[in-house]
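Researcher: I'm preparing a figure for a lab meeting and need a structural model of a single chain. I don't have an experimental structure, so a prediction will have to do for now. The sequence is pasted below. Please return the structure as C-alpha cells so I can convert it later.
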Amino acid sequence: MNFVDNVLGQETGTVRGRGILENTDRFLQSGMFGEVRLIGSGEYPAVLVPDSAVLFDQATRIVMVVGADNKVAIRVVETGPIIDGLRVVRKGLTADDKIIVKGLQRVRAGMEVTPNVVAITPKPDGLDPSPGKK
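Model: Understood. Here is the structure written out cell by cell.
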C-alpha cells in the first residue's frame, strides 16, 4: 500500500487507497479499478454479538450482561468490524456471558431480570441477526 485515504465515502462506504504492484504481463491497464481486501491483523479470540446490543456511554462502548444472580451489569467492550451481521467484540466479553439484546431501554445496572435465553446465529447476507427480527 502506497496511500490510504482518511475519509470514508458516504455514498459507497469505501476508503480510497493506492497500491504498487508488478504488472509484467500488462493485464492491468491505466484507469482500471477493482476491489481489494487487505489483512488488517492476525487472528485473535473474539465474541460476536448483534450490533444493536452495543451501546455508547459518551466515547465508551458498553454491553449489558446478566450475571449468575440474574442482575444486570455493564461491561466496557472494545469492538471491531461487523462480520456476517454480528459485531466483533475484541475485549470485555467471554463466550459464557449472557448479553441483553432486547429491552435495553428498560434495564439499568443492578436491576434483577428474568432472562429469556435464545441463540444468536450469523447471517451471511448481513441481515440483522437479533432474535425476533426478520
